[in-house]
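Worked problem 6 (solution included).
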Amino acid sequence: MLAAQAIDGCRNTQGVAVNATELPVVVVGAGPTGLAAAAHLIGRGIEPLVLETGPTAGAAVRAWSHVRLFSTWGEVVDPAAEKLLAPAGWTRPDPATYPSGADWAELYLQPLADVLGDRVHLGARVTGVSRTGRDRIVDADRDKQPFVVHVTHADGREERISALAVIDASGTWSTPSPAGGSGLPALGEKAAADRITYRVPDLKDSAVRARYAGKRTAVIGSGASAFTALAYLADLAKSGDGAGTKAVWILRRGISGSTFGGGTADQLPARGALGLAAKAAVDDGYADAVTGFRTEAIERDADGRLVLVAEDGRRLDAVDEMIVLTGFRPDLSFLDELRLGLDERLQSPVALAPLIDPNQHSCGTVYPHGHRELAHPEQGIYLVGMKSYGRAPTFLAMTGYEQVRSVTAAIAGDLEAADRVELTLAETGVCGGAGLFDDPDAAQGSEDGGCCSAPATLQIGIGAPAASGGC
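Solution. The predicted structure is:
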């Protein structure tokens, strides 16, 4: 609980007495989770202030506008946001249909930002968060001080904002993981930047399409984004202008029964179909799979093409382009003056980490969770949305919505509501802990139902889902 009276009578950065009840809750990021947090705060009678680095709401979502979600409209609209939108005449699109990133941004996120009005500040980059007058090491009256948020605006102007609490929903889109198998960029990776992308390319764009048509492209990664890229490249190879297009799918571990997801057993049918499309790309010869390959270096041949070298010394035939889809990691730099409790592996909140650890979990039956699992030693700071998962690769929008419902209830002092976490999760159809390393046996999963035989609807104060998203 973050009761306003806990910091009542404090002073702001100019030394002027501050009434804590007048302070906003700063929300970092105007994506799906951040805007939902603002809607929930308004429902609680708390004023939000949303700070978005990009020029529009949902800037990260717009960056993958060409990609279709595998969650339906019924699963990507937050209830509190829908309630806020209703008086403006907004109507939810058909809940059974699947939006693209562009649909989600234009038909939902932008109208929501419009309703929030001047509570959303665009072109506002958060560069630091601390306690007023207290750096990381100072204990005295720390919890009685409001947060101070440093912001740099698009025009270069700097600002300090006092806040009752901070909800960081900035996501992980701006910090993709590298191609290197050790978590560091491969040798030569930065020098090869002109031929590497870390996003799923939009092959409907003529210029982007020409970049990959008839070319040999390495795709590194094993998640939903990699499946999408493989399916897109296979479609390009089958088209009239894409003859000769070839994908080389680079996997850091072996291929097993769980590699392509749950298929028809996935309770999100579009997610299952995505894995099947990637499998078809391999089976039909449009993609060659290279397993157990952990990239150590990227070299250039005489023609400027890229040669990938593995840690074990293997060298692949040259490729024209690389699509690196090895996941994302959180930017924690602007939170350095706060006392965060983060798992040493995943960089997610300590209590949440064991519930989402991809070394052990691959099912959609991981428990839902709320403010207690998202809490830190520094009371009043919450990492939510995709950022709360740190480096864990799977996330659903509905998880972020449930997170902010619980967190905003806790900020308002309603612990009964905050602890009442209810969420129905869709099973992946993949059982067993698939892990993240190259042990093919560990990736096989169980044959007898395993964790996937458990019910997916839970009412409990801990846990998290498995899926994808980038919210």
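Discussion: The longest strand covers residues 124-131.
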